[in-house]
Design brief:
Elements (H helix, E strand, L loop, with lengths): L14 H12 L4 H17 L1 H16 L9 E6 L4 E2 H7 L6 H9 L3 E3 L2 E2 L6 E2 L9 E5 L3 E9 L4
Parallel strand pairs: 1-7
Antiparallel strand pairs: 2-5, 3-4, 3-6, 6-7
Helix pairs in contact: 2-3, 4-5
C-alpha cells in the first residue's frame, strides 16, 4: 500500500519487553491494555506523537468509557411523515445489511437510539422530530451513525 514500508518495521521490542508482556498477561493483566500499548507504538511510528496521543484518547473514550466517538457519519434519510420502522432505519443508515439482521440486533439488545436501548422490534421512530434534529443510532460498541430524517416527497 502507498505510504507503508515494504520491509518489516522495527518496533524496537526487546526480548525483555516480550517477557514483561507474558508475565503481565499470566498474572491477569487485561490483553486490551497490551494491545493498546502496541497500537500507540505503531501510530507513533507512522504518524507521530500527537496522533498517537489523540488515537489513544479516542480509543479509551469510546471503548473503555463507552462514550460516542468524536466523529460520527451523518446520514440523511427519507422517511414517511408518520415515522420509520426501526429495522428500516438501521438498514437505511448502513448499520444492518437487511431488516432481518436489524431485528436480530434489536432482539440481542445491541441497538441504541439516542443512548437508550431499543427492545421493541415494532418501534416506529418519529419522522422529522423537529427541523434539523438528528438521532444518534448505535449497534453494538463499534457502529455509530447520526441519522437526520426528512419527510419523503409526497408525504
Amino acid at each position: 500500500q502507498p505510504g507503508l514500508p515494504a520491509a518489516p518495521v522495527d518496533l524496537d521490542v526487546t526480548p525483555r519487553d516480550l517477557e514483561e508482556v507474558r508475565a503481565a498477561l499470566s498474572t491477569g493483566a487485561n490483553p486490551r491494555d497490551v494491545k493498546a500499548r502496541l497500537a500507540v507504538r505503531l501510530v507513533l511510528l507512522y504518524h507521530g506523537a500527537a496522533a498517537a496521543a489523540n488515537a489513544e484518547e479516542e480509543f479509551n473514550r469510546v471503548f473503555r468509557d463507552g462514550a460516542a466517538p468524536e466523529e460520527i457519519e451523518t446520514i440523511r434519510l427519507e422517511a414517511p411523515a408518520g415515522g420509520i420502522w426501526i429495522a428500516r432505519l438501521l438498514q437505511g443508515g448502513g448499520l444492518a445489511p437487511s431488516s432481518s439482521a436489524a431485528l436480530r440486533y434489536v432482539r440481542e439488545g445491541a441497538v441504541y437510539l439516542d443512548e437508550k436501548r431499543v427492545s421493541d422490534e415494532h418501534l416506529q421512530v418519529p419522522g422529522e422530530p423537529e427541523p434539523g434534529a438528528e438521532y444518534l443510532l448505535r449497534v453494538g460498541r463499534k457502529k455509530w451513525r447520526r441519522i437526520r430524517l426528512v419527510t419523503a416527497p409526497g408525504n
